[in-house]
Amino acid sequence: MPSRRRFLAIAAAAIAAPGVSHAETWRGTALGADAAITLSGPRHEVAPALAVARETLERMEALFSLYRADSVLSRLNATGRLDAPDADFAALMGLCERVFAATAGRFDPTVQPLWRALAEGGDTRAAAARIGWGRVTTAPDVQLGEGQALTLNGIAQGFASDRVAEALAAAGFTRALVNIGEMRALGGPWRIGIEDHAQGLIGQVSLSGGAIATSSPGALFLPGGASHILDPLSGGLKTPLWSSVSVEADTAALADALSTAICLMPREEIEALDVAGLRKVRLVDRAGDMMTL
């Protein structure tokens, strides 16, 4: 399955911080996305901390990757059941449930069978009938409804960014930018470039702590012309309403999930969102105009 999206927040640069002895950036891939971790601190501590961060990413891959047949998510999709999930998997299931409720079902990880049917030329009507987070049991064990499968590509990258940032904070670091498709900041300010897939660079924002995540429905299309961001309420038939969406929130996982769902929401519903931890929403319409809510 191709990477979920290529979208708004593409370039990030640190504003110079006085007194920082050493800054280093690691670059690689994680959960199907280009990844980068920029960390500042004592020179002798930075390299070991980045090694720990990479170990954290490997653990996230082992839990949530759709690209690895041996991941926990792949095993859940194959068997329909996961007994006694570990704390991180359980936490992510709980957040999925929260965002599903807050967005009236527009964020729904059970779209995976429809995504595959569209990508592979399968039976889209049968796949759409399997959509429905209400048929998923999340505690104490995870149980899927008949024929269901999950994609966590609309939230797991953000969750991984959070876990890496939290590990660095626990090690005593106060200045870092973790970018695994979605960005989580320690300290700041950090300049984040805002880029729309159709319009190019359209602005910058300053991020101090918290997170930013972005989605662009037009960045990837499936065979037949459907956007990779599928509307679960219409069986994938509804076209996303916005060219790009950028969400700032307390955590990257929350920003990630909301940016996906908001692509499908009219402005009045976005303005009515009441989600603890949501800070700001930036919308780019099809004419290339950006508005901030």
Write structural notes for this entry.
There is one protein chain. With 293 residues, this protein is α+β, with helices and mostly antiparallel strands. The protein has one domain: T-fold. Helices cover 31% and strands 25% of the residues. The chain has 8 helices and 13 strands. The strands form 3 sheets. Strands 2-3-6-7-10-11-12-13 form an 8-stranded antiparallel β-sheet, with helices on one face. A 3-stranded antiparallel β-sheet has the order 1-8-9, with no helix packed on it. Strand 8 and strand 9 form a beta hairpin. Helix 1 runs antiparallel to helix 6 (156-170) and helix 6 runs antiparallel to helix 7 (252-262). It is globular.
**Top CATH class:** Alpha Beta
- Main sheet: strand order: 2-3-6-7-10-11-12-13
Domains (count) = 1
Structural class: alpha+beta
General shape: globular
Annotated CATH architecture:
Roll
Radius of gyration: 19 Å
C-alpha end-to-end distance = 33 Å
Mean pLDDT: 89
Question: In terms of quaternary structure, what is this?
Answer: single chain
Query: By CATH's scheme, which homologous superfamily applies?
Result: ApbE-like domains
How is the secondary structure organized here?
Layout: E1 9-14, E2 22-30, E3 33-41, H1 43-64, H2 72-79, E4 81-82, H3 87-102, H4 112-120, H5 124-128, E5 142-143, H6 156-170, E6 176-180, E7 183-186, E8 190-196, E9 200-207, E10 211-215, E11 244-249, H7 252-262, H8 267-271, E12 278-284, E13 290-292
Antiparallel strand pairs: 1-8, 2-3, 3-6, 4-5, 6-7, 7-10, 8-9, 10-11, 11-12, 12-13
